[in-house]
Structure formats: C-alpha cells, structure tokens
Amino acid sequence: MLLAEMWQAQNLLVLRYQRCPAKRFNTRATRGLHCPGARRAELLGNLVRLMDKYHDELSALKALDNGKTFAWADKADVTSSMEVIKYYAGWADKITGQTLETTEKKMIYTRHEPLGVVGQIIPWKGFPLLMLTWKVGPTLATGNAIVLKPSEFTPLTAIRMCGLIQEAGFPPGVVNIITGYGHTVGAAISSHMKIEKVAFTGSTLVGRKIMEAATKSNLKDVTLELGGKSPNIIYDDADLDQAVNWAAFAKSKSIRVGDPFEIGIDQGPQVSQQQYDRIIEYINSGKKMARQSTLVGTGMARRAISSTRPFSRRRNLI
Q: What is the pTM of this model?
C-alpha cells in the first residue's frame, strides 16, 4: 500500500538547505540575543497548542509511520511530545549567565550563546515523534537553527511537524527537515563545515562514522545516543512466565496483532520487511538455542507486516 511519496535529497540539495539556516541564523529573526527568550518561549508555546489542535492527526501519522497503534500513539507518544515542547518553552527565558566577584577595576561575567546551526539525525524505532521533540525542543529554546534528518522509514510525523513549526511563527529556514538516506543526508550533516554540532540517536556503527566525519571536518560538537533496545536480564532462578509477561508489557499471551487503527489491537505491522526478517531471525535463533519456543506468532506477524518500502532511487515510497 502506497501512503505517500517523499523526495530523497541528494548531496547538492542537502548543501543548499544547509546554507539556508546558516544565513538565517545571522539575522535578527532568530539569533540568540536578537530574539529574546520570551519570544522563543512564545513560539514554542504556539507549537504546543498546534500539536494539541492536530493531536489526532499526529497520532494517525504515527500509526502509519511505524505501525504503533493509534490508541498508544494518542495516549503516550503525542501527549509526551507535547510535554517535551512545553518543558523547553518554560526554559527559553530562563537561560542566564553569571557575574563573578572580582576587584573594582574589572568586571567578569559569563553568558550562554547559541551554537549556530545544529544537525540532528533521528531513528524510526519506538518514538520517532518524541525523538524529534527531544532534539528540536532544547535547540529552539536556546536560539539555534536546525537541519534534521528523520529516518527514511518514518518521515511522516517529522514532515507534519515542520508545517506546524512554520504555522507557529518560526521564521523560514530556522527548522529544516530533509528526507533521505544516511549515506547522503546523514553524511552531509556530519561533515558540513557550517554545522557546529550534530546530535544522533541510532546504532553504534553509524555513531562511529558520524564522530569520524565531525572530527575530519570542523571538529563540531557531537552528542551520540547509541546501543541496543533496553535488554532484559533474566536469571535462571526467575519465574519465566512472569519474566516474559513483563518483557512484553505484562500481556505476552494476549497480545493482539492487526490494524493499528482498530480498537483492541496491541501491535500493528512491522515498520519494514527488513525489520520483520530480523525478528523472525531472532525467533529462529531462540528456537535453535533452546530447542523450544513458548510464544512465536510468525503467522500473525506475516499477515500484519507492512507492505511499505523505503526509498526508491528518486523518491521515498512509504
């Protein structure tokens, strides 16, 4: 099922969009002291109200993006994302420096200044909308401009948020969402000389590449959130049934897989064929190691798998 078409940015397009925030950052519309914290707080507050207004739409896009149920996205993801933006809106006008005691012949003070243009790369796993707000919230609150790459598997909520950010009153060029692959968009963000910082959430392998590119370019600041998906450590004296239940939100034997928009469904389709195959590989590996499998729902998982595809050569077919 084809849901939407999204352009895949190439290197030249990425460079073009990265010049835009660098220029915009130096104007009075956005830059740090030229835009008071109270104004930044006001704009972020506008964004929260728009997210609340389009709450159901964002929840639906979240369900389409990666298969999480509409009910779950509605109660958890979108609500939590609004709280994140609201939190940083409260901080925007409370960013202060210090005055340091010295002699009467001199005065010493410190102040926090925005970095400039910040590159951000977020994953599809779990909470793509929440990941976006975790990155965008503090960056906008502190007066920076943004170039953000969402996952090629889950760009829908990021694109919609870009529209809401514009509607909230942020000037053009402050937030730039660029869709594409890691080896093009991600690589360009990591190595661009006018990007002062890059923040990445994802695999350790890609994190190493980003750190290397940042070092070889302009020694930009790097924030990396890497590693696996919160493993559960279960000892051999544990109650196995109880452990499995807790690992699957205390309802492993009653999980219902199906249409994420249906009432009563706990889990929608996998985000991609690649992820589905990886899950089946883990199941088969567990069978081989333990010679038994307590819960395997391969048939249901196959019926529920998303028929979406990642980028084609020119466009992202979602």
A: 0.81
